[in-house]
Write a structure and sequence with these properties.
Layout (H helix, E strand, L loop, with lengths): L3 H12 L9 H12 L27 H15 L7 H22 L32 H4 L2 H37 L1
Helix pairs in contact: 1-2, 1-4, 1-6, 2-4, 3-4
InterPro entries: YdjM-like
Pfam families: YdjM
Organism: Mangrovivirga halotolerans
């Protein structure tokens, strides 16, 4: 898996492309939660559920289906008044993207058994053809080691640079729109 830091930065950078009324602290915080929530499945180890099980690590919680459900549930819980309009759709899409970004990043890592992207309809695990992100160790204590430092280095390149470019391009786009509106 990519680290919690990498997942959180991905969600934060995704927020930059959404309209200002959506980019509230609460929305971005919920987006960050969506981006790390799929790793709740590490609790399965405590219950003796094997990694490769549908309910194991990188199983159902790492699927597009789960990402969709999270988007719908969060809009229903926190933004019910927006359920039937474009703002609700945009919020749900942002939450979906944040959760789905977890799938993409984990499918780009160098370890594990793959990601059950299409669960529960297809339980096969997948990786992307390019896997440059070093897999993060599970557990906070294991992260603060040389291996954790190597994970951060790879994430700075493969998550940090693209995320920063998204933020910069989004800022330039907003400035461009403001300058066009003034003229």
């Amino acid at each position: 898996m990519a680290s919690l830091f990498g997942h959180a930065f991905a969600a934060s950078s995704l927020a930059s492309v959404f309209p200002p009324e959506i980019k509230t602290f609460k929305v971005i915080l919920l987006g960050i939660i969506c981006s790390v929530l799929p790793d709740i499945d590490v609790l399965a180890f405590s219950f003796g559920i094997p990694y490769e099980n549908l309910w194991g690590h990188r199983g159902i919680t790492h699927s597009l289906f789960f990402s969709f459900l999270i988007g719908v549930i969060l809009v229903g819980l926190f933004y019910r008044k927006f359920l039937n309009n474009k703002a609700g759709l945009a919020l749900g899409f942002y939450f979906f993207l944040c959760s789905a970004s977890h799938i993409i990043l984990d499918a780009m890592t160098t370890g594990g058994l793959g990601v059950a992207v299409f669960a529960p309809f297809d339980t096969q695990r997948y990786f992307l053809p390019v896997r440059p992100i070093k897999v993060s160790p599970i557990g906070v204590g294991n992260f603060f080691t040389d291996r954790g430092l190597n994970v951060i280095k790879s994430e700075l390149i493969w998550i940090g640079i693209p995320g920063t470019l998204i933020i910069i391009l989004s800022l330039f786009s907003q400035l461009w729109k403001k300058s066009k509106a003034k003229s």
